[in-house]
């Protein structure tokens, strides 16, 4: 009898436990269903994009208040820079031209779940990122676009800028006539005959990649990739090479570059040797660089400091006077696209694409400036500063030049101290 009572008690306990389990499962299912109903695709900030995002709240005001004259191609500064250009670093006409080129590559389709971010908005937020160097988190709050989306939009748009505009705005000259025109402008503005451009390298600071070791560690104890570039008289880049690891030297990067290969293979169609004005010796056309590069018949570098006399100091002054063009070009590039002034938090390949996009945008802006903004006011007949002294820093690499290259440099040195002398060089490089 007692055994039967125990079995009944156990049966009742099991039934109660089963009922409790079923009740808990039903409650959990209800909670899960409620969570699915309340789940959204975006957060509160991103959801408010069409009300609070800069594209909807700020850009219309910029366009309405913009009084920049897009048809003014004089290159002279106006009394008031348009608000649109001040915000995006370019006029509305230039922006529309770029948008027309990149839109097929970055436009996305709308879906039943959400409206896509337009190509115009993608280009604008990318330009703002490049122009200010701000973080993607700050852009998230300003433009109401998630950080994850920005991390995809900005590299994709930079790649589209490079792909669609490289052929028109970042092409190295390949015809003799193109080189002659560059040489003529450099001679008219900077008194250096047969010059084809100024060449130098710039370190682009970035976050150290995972497992990279010391590959990107440069002599300034930072992680970087190298931008190797050559420019013309308008501060426009005529050659760009980006991506070499920061530990490499400028001379080593140039030695492996397509520009060096083109010079050696004679595929760039440099003009034939030409006699400077009133000089009876034909001299080759040359690229001007600093002490980090090896002296070649088509690449001039200053005389080493230990071998200087007065005539050679004159040559070094005349060379560095033109070579500072590339330093100014880097300064204009970085101060316009200020992302290059801060540490870039992207992978090396994405950083490379970003820098190439900045170089193309730089050339687009320089194309509309005539005469070049930033040029010294009296380049033809006077100087007010001494740019002939070597800046302090690492010792230059000692590379043994060929006899032909040394002979070309000596001929230029002779020309600048005789027929090609300018009136102010003795004041800039006085006798020791």
Q: What would your notes on this structure say?
A:
With 432 residues, this protein is an alpha/beta fold. Helices cover 50% and strands 8% of the residues. It contains 17 helices and 5 strands. It has helices at residues 2-38, 44-47, 49-52, 54-57, 59-65, 83-88, 92-106, 119-132, 136-143, 147-169, 176-190, 250-255, 258-265, 310-336, 348-367, 403-416, 425-428, and strands at 195-205, 224-231, 237-245, 286-288, 299-300. The protein has a 5-stranded mixed β-sheet. A hairpin with a 5-residue loop joins strand 2 and strand 3 (237-245). Helix 8 (119-132) packs across helix 10 (147-169) and helix 14 (310-336) packs across helix 16 (403-416). The chain is elongated and about 125 Å long. 35% of the residues are buried. Residues 70-79 and 371-398 have low confidence and may be disordered.
